[in-house]
Design brief:
The protein is α+β, with helices and mostly antiparallel strands. 36% of the residues lie in helices and 17% in strands. Helix 5 packs across helix 6.
Length: 281
């Protein structure tokens, strides 16, 4: 089976909260396969309407983590491995920047990125268990997404004042000549330490982590779109500002749990996907 899914886009004001919805559905005749999602540093809300799905991160073996019905995951710092079974029926809500915080009012740096969290742990009543039951009875992905959009449009909070300088300065991450935390701090008349702490609260990572990830994402994108069968690693090291080959290998081990050569031979192009580019990264 070739892994396929359906994206559902959002429009304002929800697009400030949710990057997109993504549905994966397989038929009972399909065979089981292991799919992999590249690190993306995004928060996700997952609804599973089929048999429990085994998950793991980077080089870990499937089985230690299992998605039953509904869970929160992220920020996704490591490659996610997940089993697509015959009859899989999965819907993911992928959040923009402070979107998760605006829905749950939970500091993102209080969560462990490589664990599943039940969203009802963040609410006074079992809202998401009830929502799962409603969605489970809904036959189509389109209708499910419509229900979620209606709910989130009413349940989310306005962006906090503390988050505004971060949102206004996020384009600084696309300028290699700038230090984003310093530029945002200067614009907002804040200390760099304050900017760093706010990043961790609203999105779960520091500006330094984000810069490292964006560089690695460029490497992965370059490999995936390369027309050459053989990748010139020294060109990648030079083009994306790595110190040397060991520096690049270190990032492959950190994010994917493997070496560059193994990634090329066993993972790239084989049920491995990256999320769609957002407005900011």
């Amino acid at each position: 089976m070739g892994l396929t899914g359906t994206h559902f886009e959002t429009v304002p004001p929800l697009s400030d909260i949710v990057k997109h919805f993504y549905a994966i559905r397989s038929t009972p005749e399909d065979v089981s396969t292991i799919a992999r999602l590249s690190p993306n540093y995004e928060m996700m809300l997952l609804f599973n309407f089929s048999a429990p799905i085994r998950l793991s991160f980077a080089s870990e073996v499937l089985g230690a983590i299992q998605l039953d019905k509904v869970a929160v995951l992220g920020p996704l710092r490591k490659m996610l491995n997940y089993e697509v079974l015959p009859g899989t029926d999965l819907l993911a809500v992928v959040f923009n920047l402070d979107g998760f915080y605006r829905l749950f009012q939970v500091p993102v740096d209080s969560l462990h990125g490589e664990q599943l969290h039940h969203p009802d742990d963040f609410t006074a009543t079992p809202v998401y268990q009830e929502l799962w039951e409603v969605l489970k009875r809904t036959p189509s992905s389109e209708e499910r997404v419509a229900i979620l959009k209606d709910y989130m449009n009413t349940a989310t909070h306005a962006a906090e004042d503390g988050a505004q300088p971060l949102l206004e300065g996020v384009d600084y991450f696309n300028d290699p000549q700038l230090q984003p935390a310093k530029a945002i701090a200067a614009d907002a008349e804040l200390s760099e330490r304050t900017v760093q702490l706010r990043f961790k609260k609203y999105v779960g990572y520091s500006p330094k982590e984000m810069l490292r990830f964006l560089r690695f994402k460029q490497v992965i994108n370059s490999i995936e779109h390369s027309a050459d069968a053989d990748v010139d690693w020294f060109d990648l090291i030079h083009d994306f500002g790595y110190h040397d080959q060991s520096h690049l290998i270190k990032d492959f081990q950190y994010y994917l749990g493997t070496t560059p050569e193994t990634f090329i031979k066993q993972i790239a192009g084989k049920e491995f996907c990256t999320t769609r580019a957002g407005r900011n990264y």
